[in-house]
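Input C-alpha cells:
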C-alpha cells in the first residue's frame, strides 16, 4: 500500500478573515507554522509564491531566489519538502481583472512575471510543480472580455510557463466560480482540454479539490478518477463543502462522509502516492472562524485522521460482495453494505 504524504499550505492556518469580518486570531510566523506542521506529522508544504517570498514584488530576481534558498534550508531543518509553488494572481490590484486573461497588456506582463518568479522559487525550494488556481481567470461582467480571445490568451500564458523551464510541470486546479462569476476553465475536463492544446501536453495535469468539484455540481471522486484514468492526477486538495454555495474549505469528510470515503477509495485503489512526493494528499482546509487560537491546527489534524480512518475502511472493502451485487444488479444491498461499513456496524 502506498505511503500517503500529507501536505498543507501556510494559508491553511489563518486568522479567520472572511468577507464579513476581519481576522480574529493572531498571525503565526511562517517558521512557527512549519515547525508545527512537522510536529503534527505532515510531510510537506505547499506555497503561494508570496508565502515563500513575501515582498517579492519589490525584490530583484536574484534576491527572490536567494530568499527562497534560505527558506529551503528552513524546510530541511524541519524535515519538510515543498510540494508546489502557486503564483498568487488574485491579490494584486494589477490582477483584479484576471492575470493570464487580463485585458491590459501591462497587467498580463505582471502575471507572467509572477509566474516566472514562481518557477524560480519552486526550483530553489526543490520542486518542479507549479500550481495554477485560475482564481480571476474569467469574468464578473460577461461582456467585459472576448471569451474566445481570452481562452487562447490563457493557453498562451501556460505555453510561456512551459517554455520558461523544460522541467516544469503545470497543475491546473480548476474551480467553476468565486471570486469571479464565470470561470474560463472550471472543471478537470476544461483544464485537461486546454492542456492538450499547449506546446507540451505531457507537462500539464490537474490538482482536484473536493470543494471545487462540488461547486461545479460534480462528484470529487469521479473527477479524481477521470484524471487518474488519463494519468493526470498530480495533486489533490481534500476538504469538504456543504452544497453549491461559497467555497467553505471544511475539514475533509465532515459534511459528505460517503463522498469522502469514495475519494480515499479511488486514491487507494489506483496507488496514488506511489510516486513519492510527486503525489501528495493536500489538505486544503480552513478552521472555523470560531476556533480558538490555541487550537488552530485542529482542522488539519482532523482531516488527516478522517483520511486515515477512511483508508482503513477502504482496505477492508469487500470486493467479493461487491462483485456479487454487481452481477445480480443488487445495488440496494451494495449500498447498505457501504453504509454499514462507514457506520462501523
Ligand atoms: C482556493 C484555492 C487555493 C489554492 C492554492 O480556493 O484552493 O487555496 O489551492 O492557490
Ligand atoms: Mg485548493
Amino acid at each position: 500500500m502506498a505511503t500517503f504524504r500529507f501536505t498543507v499550505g501556510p494559508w491553511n492556518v489563518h486568522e479567520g478573515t472572511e468577507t464579513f469580518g476581519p481576522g480574529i486570531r493572531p498571525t503565526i510566523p511562517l517558521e512557527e507554522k512549519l515547525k508545527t506542521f512537522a510536529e503534527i506529522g505532515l510531510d510537506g508544504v505547499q506555497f503561494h509564491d508570496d508565502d515563500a517570498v513575501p515582498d517579492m514584488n519589490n525584490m530583484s530576481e536574484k534576491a527572490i531566489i536567494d530568499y527562497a534558498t534560505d527558506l529551503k534550508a528552513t524546510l530541511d531543518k524541519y524535515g519538510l519538502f515543498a510540494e508546489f509553488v502557486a503564483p498568487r494572481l488574485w491579490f494584486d490590484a494589477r490582477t483584479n481583472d484576471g492575470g493570464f486573461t487580463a485585458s491590459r497588456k501591462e497587467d498580463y506582463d505582471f502575471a507572467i512575471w509572477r509566474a516566472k518568479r514562481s518557477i524560480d522559487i519552486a526550483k530553489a525550494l526543490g520542486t518542479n510543480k507549479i500550481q495554477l488556481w485560475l482564481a480571476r481567470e474569467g469574468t464578473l461582467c460577461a461582456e467585459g472580455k472576448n471569451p474566445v480571445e481570452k481562452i487562447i490568451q490563457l493557453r498562451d500564458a501556460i505555453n510561456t510557463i512551459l517554455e520558461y523551464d523544460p522541467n516544469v510541470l503545470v497543475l491546473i486546479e480548476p474551480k467553476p466560480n468565486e471570486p469571479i462569476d464565470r470561470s474560463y476553465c472550471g472543471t478537470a475536463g476544461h483544464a485537461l482540454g486546454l492542456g492538450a492544446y499547449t506546446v507540451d501536453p505531457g507537462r500539464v495535469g490537474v490538482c482536484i479539490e473536493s470543494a471545487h468539484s462540488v461547486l461545479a455540481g460534480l462528484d470529487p471522486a469521479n473527477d479524481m478518477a477521470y484524471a487518474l484514468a488519463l494519468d493526470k492526477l498530480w495533486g489533490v486538495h481534500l476538504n469538504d463543502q456543504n452544497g453549491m454555495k461559497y467555497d467553505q474549505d471544511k475539514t475533509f469528510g465532515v459534511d459528505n462522509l460517503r463522498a469522502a470515503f469514495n475519494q480515499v477509495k479511488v486514491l487507494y485503489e489506483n496507488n496514488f502516492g506511489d510516486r513519492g512526493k510527486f503525489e501528495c494528499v493536500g489538505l486544503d482546509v480552513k478552521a472555523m472562524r470560531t476556533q480558538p487560537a490555541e487550537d488552530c491546527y485542529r482542522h488539519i489534524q482532523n482531516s488527516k485522521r478522517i483520511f486515515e480512518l477512511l483508508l482503513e475502511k477502504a482496505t477492508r472493502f469487500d470486493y467479493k460482495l461487491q462483485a456479487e451485487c454487481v452481477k445480480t444488479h443488487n445495488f440496494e444491498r451494495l449500498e447498505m453494505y457501504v453504509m454499514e461499513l462507514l457506520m462501523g456496524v
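Residues 48, 86, 133, 173, 175, 209, 237, 247, 284 surround D-xylose (ligand 1) (CB under 6 Å). The beta strands are 6-8, 44-48, 81-86, 129-133, 138-139, 169-173, 182-183, 204-209, 233-238, 281-283.
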